[in-house]
């Protein structure tokens, strides 16, 4: 075995079997170990049906990713919990645990920071550090389950980072988290949000996973979108919407479009008209989100009446739009802000 320890929780069952075979262990051990890892143990010593000797060999050759709690904020309005987690190398990400009537949803991060640089986003302002591994994505859910003694039934990839910019690790995470011997969270209980990395949307569509795709649109035309979302200069709205149509055709799933309403930037009647025309013919739902104010952006939330007018205009084009309920508004529950605050603390 090499001296670099392996990330055992990111391994698929067959990879685990191969490794155990190399170690001269029987195949059934792989399933036992897989189950422990996905129950969320953080040490090989917790694997009580595995011999001491094998536990020792495993800990010499492998490590188990953990997400350690650095900070936790609990909303006094609705019990939403926001975590700042750290990994073995000291890098931190945020995750938000929300309670809905149908159960608990965890909003996890997929990267430390983000390269995409959207002008309204706290994560985008902090730059990019590194990709998360599949096991680090799972560890966020597992720490939240352990910390609260709960079972999480839904996952959204809407925390820090652009999931499709970390494609291979995200796909690995999706397959592992939905494994019936693991956390068994079905694809229909998972949403992935993207700023629109078009080639990866095609690739995801071809995998025909039954997850919900959320596309962060935030503008009805290239002029406004390129100003707020630099990714649009590479993949404009027409090509993005073509990939969305392809995604719907391939998977039979409806797409949801995220639209952060920014006062005076993208919330006019004309914007609503344009958006209606652009989305016509796509099986879509539009989520309007009053933009979360991030220091230094100068953006303000649209007024309630503006949002209502916007919804009415979209309805004329046959598009349903709703205002997304904001949870944890007293703890800045949208991601990127806690890490920025925490970095500022230590500066
Ligand atoms: N990178 C992915 C997923 C993480 S961001 C993406 O961009 O889709 C999760 C969501 O939060 C996205 O829809 C993003 O556009 C939105 N968002 C980011 N900053 C925001 C802010 N200040 N107010 C409202 N929504 C914001
Ligand atoms: Fe990255 Fe998404 Fe933030 Fe844009 S909105 S900077 S893609 S995390």
3D structure, described in words:
By secondary structure, the protein is an alpha/beta fold. It has two domains: 6-63, Orthogonal Bundle (DNA polymerase, domain 1), CATH 1.10.150; 68-346, TIM Barrel, CATH 3.20.20.70. It is 38% helix and 21% strand. It has helices at residues 13-22, 28-39, 52-61, 122-125, 134-148, 167-177, 198-207, 222-228, 231-234, 237-251, 269-279, 304-316, 337-346; strands at 6-7, 62-63, 68-74, 81-86, 92-100, 103-107, 111-113, 128-131, 152-157, 190-194, 212-216, 255-261, 284-290, 320-323. α12 (304-316) links the parallel β13 (284-290) and β14. The longest helix is centred in the middle third of the chain and has 15 residues, at 134-148. Bound molecules: S-adenosyl-L-homocysteine (SAH) and iron/sulfur cluster.
> Gap between N and C termini, in Å?
41 Å
CATH superfamily of the largest domain: Aldolase class I
H/E series: EHHHEEEEEEHEHEHEHEHHHEHEHEH
Shape: elongated
Largest sheet: 10 strands, mixed
CATH uppermost class of the largest domain: Alpha Beta
**Stretches with pLDDT under 50, minimum 5 residues:** 341-347
Q: How many domains, in number, for the residues?
A: 2
Overall pLDDT, averaged?
92
* Bound ligands: S-adenosyl-L-homocysteine, iron/sulfur cluster
The secondary-structure class comes to: alpha/beta
The beta-strand count equals 14
Compute the CA-based radius of gyration: 21 Å
Kindly state the percentage of residues in helix: 25-40%
